[in-house]
C-alpha cells in the first residue's frame, strides 16, 4: 500500500492531484488543518469525488484549494473513502480544471488561509471612482475584519463554505488583504499555484516582517473613502427600491380581507394582491373575484364575486341563482343557511344596467352584496384578485372558476329512491338533476317551473359535414391491442381500465385538429364494479393519436356514469380541473343500458347533450382546438363503444 505524507504548502494541490491521477490507481488524498478536513478521491486514475464539510463535488474541490492550502496531507492507495461519487470529470476535464487552478491570477492580498489575518485595505489610488458591489453576507463579514483575528477565528460560528467564498471575493476585489499573524512573515501567505517542475518550499524565501507602526487605530482614517463609496452604493440601491415600489403600486395593490362573506375561498385576515391593469386591457367576466369601491362609501373597498354582467337578467329561486333563465352551478359558494333577504324577491328578475355588474359574496348567509339593491359600476372596480400571499399556507394564485350554465329544460329535483336495475330501467325523462349544494327546494323549483318555463320548439339543425359515422367496428384506424386498454372484439369495441388510478383515452381515426365540431357516441357498460364513467373527448391538443395508455395532455371530456350521473372536466397535463363535478341526472340511463352522448363545441361555448336532453352549456376558452376521441374512467371499468360520429357545423374552421 502506497502512502505519502507532507504539508500541502510544500507541494501544491494541483501537482498532488496530477500525481494521484497519473498513477492510474484508486486512492484518497486527505487534507486537514485543525478540525477542518477535505478529501479528494481517485478511482482508476480519475477524480470521482471531493468533500469539504457539508460541501461536495466540484465546489468542495475549489474550497479545499482555498482553505487548506497550508494543511497537512496524506495520500493512501486502496483506502475506503467516506464520500460517495459526486464528480464525473474525464481526464481532459480534470486537466482543464487543474490548468485553471494553477493559472488563476493572484488576488490582491493573497488567498484566505485559515492562519492568515484579514485586514481592510485601499487601492493605491484612493481617488479612483471604481465601485465594488457587496452582498449582505460580505458586508456582515467585513464588519468583523479588524486586523487582529485570523481567518479561522472570524469563521467561528458562521457557515464555513459561505464565509470562505465571501473572504475570497473581498480579497479578489481588493477590499481586504490577507497578512500573516503577529510574529510571522507576510510571505507565509501562499500565492496562487503556478506551474512548476518540482515542489518548491517557501519557508526559506526572504520574508518581510510586519511594520510595527501598522495599528488598528490607523484603520478609520484609511477606511473613510471606502465608507463614502459604500454610502453612495446604499443610496443608489435605496433610490432604485423606491422607484420599483412606485412602479409596482401602479400595477398591483395589496388588500386585507376582513369578515367572512367570501368563505370558504377567502378567509378573514387573508392578504391579496390585486391586478390594477386587468380591466384596462380586458373586461370583467362572470366568476371574477373583484375588489371595488363600495357604492355607498367610496372610501371603503369590498371584495365580492361577479355574477351578473351588463344587460343580463338575474333572479333567485330557492337559494339558487339564475342568469338569463339558466341556472349557475357555483362550486365555490358556501351552503346557504338563510339570513339575507334577496333582492329582487324570490323568482323576480332584475336587469343589470349597462356598464354595471351584479356581485355576490360566496358566503351568501352573511354577505352584504347586490341582493340589497345596489350594483357596481365599471369605474368603481379596482381590479380582480390575482394572488393570495398571506398567511404562507394560503399562498396561491386566485383562479377564476368555470361557472357552468345549465338550461331550465334539464332541471328536475331527484328525490331519494332505490337503485333501478339496469335490465328494468325505464326510459329517462328529458331532465337532469344537480348536486344537492346547488339545488333549490322542491316546492320552490316546482312553482318557478310552472310560472317561468314554457315549452319551446327547437329550430331544425343546420346541415353539417360528416367526417366519421356509423358503427365503430366498421371504422378503420381505432387503436386495437387485446393486451392493452382498447381493442376490437368481434362486433364491439372494448375499453377497459386495467390499472388503478388510471383512465383510458383513445383518439378517433381522423386527421387534423377540430375547432368547431359536434361529436356523438353510443356507450354501454359491460363489466366492472359500480361507478366510473365514459364519455367524449374534444379539443385534445396531443400531437400524436392516443392509444389508451397516455395519462397526460390537455383536453375536455364530458362523461356519463352508470349511476345516472353527468360531469365535465378539463385535463391539464397531470391533474383535472372541475368544470362540472359529478351531478345526478335523469337524462342518463343507469346500469348497462346504452347511452347516447353528444358534445357540441362552437367557439368558447361547450354544450353537453345526453339522450337528446341538453344537460350542460358553458363557456370555456382554455383550449381552442384539437383532436376528438373516447374516454373511460374508474378502476376496472369495462365499457363498449358502439357508434361514433363526428360532424362539422357550417361555421367550423379546421386549421
The biggest sheet, with number of strands, parallel, antiparallel or mixed sense and barrel status, is:
8 strands, antiparallel
Percentage beta strand: 25-35%
- N-to-C CA distance: 73 Å
CATH topology of the domain at 462-648: Jelly Rolls
Backbone shape:
flat
CATH architecture of the domain at 462-648: Sandwich
Which oligomerization state do the chains in this entry correspond to? single chain
Helix percentage range: 10-25%
CATH class of the domain at 462-648, named Mainly Beta
Given helix and strand content, the structural type is alpha+beta
How many helices? The count is 10
Q: From the alpha carbons, calculate the radius of gyration and give it in angstroms.
A: 37 Å
Low-confidence stretches: 123-127, 183-223, 412-463, 651-655
Strand segment tally: 35
Q: Determine the CATH superfamily of the domain at 462-648.
A: Exo-inulinase, domain 1
Please characterize this protein's 3D structure.
The protein has 655 residues and is an alpha+beta fold. Among the domains are: 3-103, no CATH class; 290-406, Umud Fragment, subunit A (Ribbon); 462-648, Jelly Rolls, CATH 2.60.120. 17% of the residues lie in helices and 32% in strands. The chain is built from ten helices and 35 strands. Strands 9, 10, 11, 12, 17, 18, 19 and 20 form an eight-stranded antiparallel β-sheet that branches. A hairpin with a 3-residue loop joins β28 (554-561) and β29. α2 (13-22) packs antiparallel against α4 and α5 packs across α7 (160-172). The two termini are 73 Å apart. The model is unreliable at 123-127, 183-223, 412-463 and 651-655 (pLDDT under 50).
Amino acid at each position: 500500500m502506497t502512502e505519502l505524507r507532507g504539508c500541502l504548502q510544500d507541494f501544491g494541490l494541483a501537482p498532488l492531484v496530477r500525481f494521484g491521477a497519473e498513477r492510474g490507481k484508486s486512492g484518497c488524498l486527505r487534507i486537514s488543518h485543525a478540525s477542518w478536513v477535505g478529501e479528494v478521491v481517485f478511482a482508476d486514475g480519475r477524480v470521482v469525488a471531493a468533500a469539504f464539510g457539508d460541501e461536495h463535488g466540484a465546489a468542495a474541490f475549489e474550497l479545499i484549494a482555498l482553505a487548506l492550502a497550508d494543511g497537512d496531507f496524506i495520500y493512501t492507495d486502496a483506502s475506503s473513502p467516506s464520500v460517495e461519487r459526486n464528480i464525473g470529470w474525464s481526464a481532459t476535464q480534470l486537466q482543464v480544471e487543474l490548468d485553471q487552478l494553477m493559472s488563476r491570477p493572484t488576488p490582491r492580498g493573497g488567498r484566505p488561509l485559515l492562519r492568515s489575518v484579514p485586514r481592510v485595505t485601499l487601492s493605491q489610488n484612493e481617488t479612483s471612482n471604481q465601485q465594488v458591489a457587496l452582498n449582505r453576507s460580505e458586508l456582515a463579514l467585513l464588519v468583523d475584519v479588524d486586523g487582529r483575528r485570523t481567518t479561522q477565528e472570524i469563521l467561528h460560528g458562521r457557515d464555513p463554505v459561505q464565509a470562505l467564498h465571501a473572504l475570497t471575493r473581498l480579497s479578489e476585489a481588493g477590499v481586504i488583504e490577507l497578512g500573516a499573524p503577529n510574529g510571522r512573515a507576510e510571505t507565509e501567505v501562499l500565492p496562487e499555484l503556478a506551474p512548476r517542475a518540482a515542489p518548491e518550499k517557501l519557508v526559506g524565501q526572504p520574508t518581510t516582517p510586519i511594520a510595527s507602526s501598522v495599528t488598528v487605530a490607523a484603520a478609520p482614517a484609511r477606511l473613510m473613502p471606502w465608507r463614502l463609496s459604500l454610502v453612495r452604493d446604499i443610496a443608489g440601491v435605496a433610490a432604485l427600491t423606491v422607484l420599483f415600489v412606485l412602479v409596482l403600486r401602479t400595477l398591483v395593490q395589496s388588500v386585507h380581507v376582513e369578515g367572512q362573506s367570501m368563505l370558504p375561498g377567502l378567509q378573514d385576515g387573508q392578504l391579496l394582491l390585486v391586478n390594477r391593469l386587468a380591466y384596462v386591457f380586458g373586461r370583467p367576466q362572470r366568476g371574477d373575484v373583484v375588489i371595488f369601491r363600495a357604492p355607498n362609501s367610496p372610501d371603503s373597498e369590498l371584495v365580492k364575486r361577479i355574477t351578473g354582467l351588463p344587460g343580463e337578467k338575474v333572479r333567485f329561486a330557492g337559494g339558487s341563482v339564475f342568469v338569463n333563465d339558466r341556472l349557475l352551478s357555483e362550486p365555490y359558494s358556501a351552503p346557504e343557511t338563510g339570513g339575507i333577504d334577496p333582492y329582487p324577491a324570490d323568482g323576480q328578475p332584475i336587469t343589470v344596467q349597462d356598464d354595471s355588474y351584479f356581485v355576490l359574496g360566496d358566503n351568501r348567509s352573511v354577505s352584504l352584496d347586490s341582493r340589497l339593491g345596489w350594483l357596481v359600476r365599471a369605474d368603481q372596480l379596482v381590479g380582480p384578485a390575482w394572488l393570495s400571499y398571506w398567511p404562507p399556507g394560503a399562498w396561491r394564485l386566485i383562479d377564476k372558476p368555470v361557472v357552468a350554465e345549465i338550461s331550465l329544460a334539464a332541471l328536475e329535483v331527484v328525490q331519494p329512491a332505490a337503485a333501478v336495475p339496469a335490465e328494468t330501467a325505464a326510459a329517462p325523462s328529458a331532465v337532469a338533476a344537480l348536486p344537492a349544494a346547488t339545488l333549490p327546494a322542491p316546492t320552490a323549483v316546482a312553482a318557478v317551473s310552472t310560472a317561468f318555463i314554457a315549452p319551446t320548439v327547437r329550430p331544425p339543425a343546420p346541415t353539417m359535414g360528416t367526417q366519421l359515422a356509423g358503427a365503430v367496428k366498421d371504422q378503420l384506424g381505432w387503436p386495437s391491442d387485446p393486451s392493452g386498454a382498447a381493442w376490437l372484439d368481434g362486433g364491439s369495441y372494448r375499453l377497459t381500465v386495467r390499472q388503478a388510478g388510471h383512465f383510458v383515452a383513445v383518439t378517433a381515426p381522423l386527421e387534423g385538429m377540430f375547432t368547431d365540431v359536434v361529436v356523438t357516441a353510443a356507450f354501454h357498460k359491460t363489466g366492472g364494479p359500480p361507478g366510473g364513467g365514459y364519455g367524449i373527448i374534444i379539443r385534445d391538443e396531443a400531437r400524436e393519436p392516443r392509444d389508451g395508455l397516455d395519462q397526460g395532455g390537455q383536453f375536455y371530456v364530458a362523461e356519463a356514469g352508470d349511476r345516472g350521473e353527468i360531469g365535465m372536466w378539463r385535463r391539464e397535463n397531470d391533474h383535472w380541473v372541475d368544470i362540472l363535478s359529478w351531478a345526478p341526472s335523469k337524462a342518463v340511463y343507469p346500469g348497462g343500458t346504452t347511452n347516447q352522448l353528444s358534445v357540441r363545441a362552437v367557439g368558447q361555448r361547450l354544450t353537453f347533450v345526453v339522450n337528446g336532453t341538453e344537460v350542460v352549456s358553458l363557456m370555456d376558452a382554455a383550449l381552442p382546438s384539437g383532436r376528438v376521441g373516447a374516454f373511460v374512467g374508474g378502476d376496472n371499468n369495462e365499457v363498449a363503444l358502439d357508434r361514433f360520429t363526428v360532424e362539422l357545423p357550417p361555421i367550423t374552421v379546421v386549421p
